[in-house]
C-alpha cells in the first residue's frame, strides 16, 4: 500500500497528458514484470477460455488509471485518492448484481455514509467546478477498479499474480498506444525518470504485490489493509507537494474511510464464521 500510494503525488507531479503517462507507465512496467517472470521461470501461457476475461480486466485497469489520473489533475492528492476509495463499498453493491448474492441492509447504510462523505468533498455542485468533475472521475475510476478486482480474483488460483498483471499491462498499452499520435510529447524526455519511478514503484511493485495479496487474503481483507492507501497518499502529498487537505476534505474522507473499514471488518468476520 505504501508503494501504491505514490501514485497520487506522482500523478499530480508528472507534467504530461494523462494518456501518455498511463501508456508509458504500462509499457515500462510490463517490461519490468516480463523480465521478472522470465527470471523466475513463470509459465506465461494463458488458456483460451480465460483470454477474454483477462483482456477485459486489462481494459478496466487502463480505464481505472485514466479516470483516476484525470481526477488527480483536476483536484489534489486528497480529493483524487479519497474519491477513488469509494471502490470497496461499490464492490459490495456490485457483488449482488454479478454474483447473485443478497444485498444486506448495512450496505445501504454505508452507501448513505459514503454519499454524505462525498457531499463534504464537493464545495460547489456545478460542472464548472473542477473538484466536482474530479470526484465524478474518481468514483467512475472506483467502479472500473472494483470490476477489475472481481475479475482478477476469479483467476488467482490458476495464474501467478505477476503473470496476470503482465497481461493486463499489455492490454492497457495496446489500448492507449494511439495516444502517442494524438497528444503532445515534446517534454517526454524531461519527465521520463518520473514515469519510470511510477512504473517501478507504483505499478511493477505495488500493484503486483496487491494482486498477489488476493492469494493470501480475501478481497475484503485486502480492502481493510488498503484503507491505509489514502492516508499514506495524503501524507506523501503534504511532504512532497505541500498539498494540505482542508477541514471539509478531512471530514468527508473520514466518513468514506470509516464506511470502508466497517464494511470490510463486518464482511471479514462473516467469512471467518463461514469457514
UniProtKB/TrEMBL annotation:
Transmembrane segments annotated in the record for this chain: 18-41, 53-71, 77-98, 105-125, 131-151, 163-180, 192-210, 222-241, 247-266
InterPro entries (alphabetical): EamA_dom, EmrE-like
EamA domain sequence ranges: 1-121, 133-262
Domain of life per record: Bacteria
SUPFAM superfamilies: Multidrug resistance efflux transporter EmrE
One matching Pfam family: EamA
Keyword annotations of the record: Membrane, Transmembrane, Transmembrane helix
PANTHER family in the record: ACYL-MALONYL CONDENSING ENZYME-RELATED, MOBA-LIKE NTP TRANSFERASE DOMAIN-CONTAINING PROTEIN
Protein name stated in the entry: DMT family transporter
Amino acid at each position: 500500500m505504501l508503494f501504491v500510494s505514490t501514485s497520487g503525488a506522482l500523478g499530480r507531479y508528472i507534467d504530461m497528458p494523462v494518456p501518455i503517462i498511463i501508456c508509458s507507465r504500462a509499457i515500462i512496467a510490463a517490461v519490468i514484470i516480463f523480465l521478472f517472470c522470465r527470471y523466475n521461470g513463470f509459465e506465461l501461457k494463458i488458456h483460451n477460455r480465460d483470454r477474454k476475461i483477462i483482456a477485459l480486466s486489462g481494459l478496466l485497469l487502463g480505464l481505472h488509471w485514466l479516470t483516476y489520473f484525470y481526477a488527480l489533475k483536476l483536484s489534489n492528492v486528497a480529493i483524487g485518492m479519497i474519491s477513488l476509495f469509494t471502490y470497496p463499498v461499490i464492490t459490495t453493491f456490485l457483488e449482488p448484481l454479478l454474483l447473485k448474492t443478497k444485498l444486506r441492509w448495512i450496505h445501504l447504510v454505508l452507501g448513505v455514509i459514503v454519499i454524505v462523505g462525498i457531499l463534504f468533498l464537493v464545495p460547489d455542485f456545478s460542472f464548472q467546478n473542477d473538484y466536482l468533475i474530479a470526484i465524478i472521475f474518481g468514483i467512475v475510476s472506483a467502479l472500473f477498479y472494483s470490476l477489475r478486482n472481481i475479475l482478477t480474483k476469479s483467476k488467482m488460483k490458476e495464474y501467478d499474480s505477476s503473470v496476470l498483471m503482465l497481461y493486463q499491462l499489455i492490454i492497457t498499452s495496446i489500448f492507449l498506444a494511439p495516444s502517442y499520435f494524438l497528444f503532445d510529447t515534446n517534454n517526454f524526455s524531461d519527465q521520463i525518470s518520473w514515469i519510470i519511478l511510477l512504473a517501478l514503484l507504483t505499478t511493477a511493485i505495488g500493484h503486483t504485490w496487491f494482486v498477489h495479496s488476493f492469494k493470501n487474503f480475501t478481497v475484503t481483507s485486502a480492502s481493510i489493509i488498503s484503507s491505509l492507501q489514502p492516508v499514506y497518499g495524503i501524507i506523501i502529498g503534504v511532504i512532497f507537494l505541500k498539498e494540505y487537505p482542508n477541514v471539509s476534505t478531512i471530514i468527508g474522507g473520514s466518513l468514506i474511510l470509516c464506511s470502508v473499514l466497517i464494511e470490510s471488518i463486518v464482511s471479514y468476520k462473516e467469512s471467518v464464521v463461514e469457514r
